[in-house]
Design goal:
By secondary structure, this protein is an alpha+beta fold. It is 36% helix and 39% strand. It is globular.
Amino acid sequence: MALLLTGCPTAHYVKVEVWKKEIKAADKAFSDLSKKEGMKIAFIEYMENDGVLLRPNHPPIVGADAIDFLSQSADTAYTLTWSPSAADVSQSGDLGYSYGTYTLQMRDTALYGTYVSIWKKQDDGKWKFVLDSGNPGLNTKPMDTLITQE
């Protein structure tokens, strides 16, 4: 009877773990699209309508301004990919985050950094990011410097 009154914590834990996996999968699919179709298309596809981009030396870029910013970006001279290291989600399952490392591959050079994305579950069940920020400056390959969590 107590289990019925308090809900089933085990079932909720399973849901939270599923939601975390969904966020990591959305983040990975986002990176895969960036590799295949380019950064611009991927960011526009995975950003919520009022999404925010935080970029170095730039004030926050919000919603339609973020779409304009991305649309004007030339992304043919490089490939941007990333790998989520971990994700977490709210107990309600509608808001979460992921973080990891990214690689910006240009013709002769690769730059590495870290990122964080905050994700919101949409009415159709898909995850879109509401905030994305990156931090350039890793001097070595990403997996050499970051311990991943499962």
